Amino acid sequence: MRLTSSTFPSKILQSAGAFQSYTNFLLNEFDPLFAANRMAAEVIDIIEETQQARTLVLRPSIHWKGYTPGQYVPVEIDINGVRHRRHYSISSAPSEFKHANTIRISIKCVEGGLVSNYLHEQLSVGDLIYIGPATGDFTLNSTLLSRRPTKISPPESSKKPNKRSSKKPLLFVAAGSGITPIMAMLEALAEHGKQYKEQQTIHLIYFAKSKSEMIFFDRLNQLAASLPGFRFLSHFTDTQGRVTEQVLKTDCPNLAEHQWYICGPQGFMDSVRNAASTLGIAKKDIKSEAFGTPSTTLALSDYLNAKKSKPILGQVSFSASGKTIESKGKQTLLELAESAGLKPKYGCRSGICHECKCSKISGQVLNTLSGEIIPEAQQLIQACISVPIGDVSIETW
Q1: Mean of per-residue pLDDT scores for the chain
Q2: Which side of the chain, N or C, has fewer Cβ within a 10 Å radius?
Q3: What Rg do the C-alpha atoms of the chain give, in angstroms?
C-alpha cells in the first residue's frame, strides 16, 4: 500500500508538533499513564493522617522525571467541567519513587477550599489525577545528600580546612501542613545517613494546634527513635502557645551554628524570621517556604502606616484584553484580573509557584510577601502577591 497525504488526517502531516499531539491523544485514550503532554498519576493508596489531612500515594506517568526533596508538583483536577490547578509538596523520599515508582503528596483540607475538599471527599483509590514536573527551590543543600569521597591524608604541613566537607547542624521549624516538604527532606537525610554511616545533627521543631492535628506524628517519632542525631520537638499551640524566641532557644541550643529550614503559614513564618533576626541568624543560613495565602490586608496596613497615607486608588488596565478595572488598594492583581472577567493562569495563589507571573508595562505594586514596593522598572511580577499602588498597566492579559 502506498502512503499518500490522504492516508492520514491532513492536520497530522502539517508538522511534527501536530503529529506528536495526535500521538499523545491516542495514548491518552489508550492509557493516560503513557501520555506525555498531560501526565496522569494513579491513586494507589490513601492514608488518613489526621481528620483534616490525608496522603495520596501516586503512581505517576512513565514520562514523569522525579524530584528533589522539598519540591512540589502541580495537580490538575476537573470539577464540574472546569479544570483547577493547585500545588502540593511531595512528602516522601526520592528512593520510594526510584524503587516503587510511587510518590506521596499530603493534603490538608481547607475550609472553603474547592480542590482540597474535592480531593478529600471525592477521590478514591484507582482514580487518576494529572500532575506536572516537580519544581521549587525549597530544597536541601546538594552537598547534604552527596557521598563524600574517601580522602588520603596529605602531609601535615599542606593540610587546609575543607569547608565543603563539614556539614552544619540542621534546624527545621514547621507549622501545620508546612511539615510536608520537610518530611521528604528528613527521610532522604535518614536514608543517606544509614547508607553511608554518616550521622547528621538535626533538630525539628514542629507546631500544630493539638496532637490530633499533628501530621506525621507517629512517623516522626519512629524516625527519631531510629536516627541518631535527630531530635523531634513537638508543640501544641492550643495549650502551649505559639512560637517564640525563647522556645527556639530552649529547644535548640547554639541556634546560630545551624542551617535553618522553615515552612508554614505566613504569620508563623514572620514570627520565626523575626525571632531569627533578633537572635542574629544570618539570612544566608535561612531557607523558607510559606504555605497559605499572604495577608494582603496586613502588608497594606504596614505600608500605609509607614507612609501615613490612606489607601491609594487607581485604574488597572489589561492591554491584551483592553479591559480596565478600578483598584481600591485592597486586592491583588490576580484578584482584580478575575474580577474583570479574565482567566489568568495561577497555581498556589501565595507567591510560591510563579505560575501567575505577568508583565507590567507601568506603575508600582506592593509585594505582600516582603512588604516592599516593586521598582517601576521591574516588568515581570507575581500577580497573586502584587497589589497596585495607583495606576498600573499590565501587558499579559
Answers
A1: 83
A2: N
A3: 24
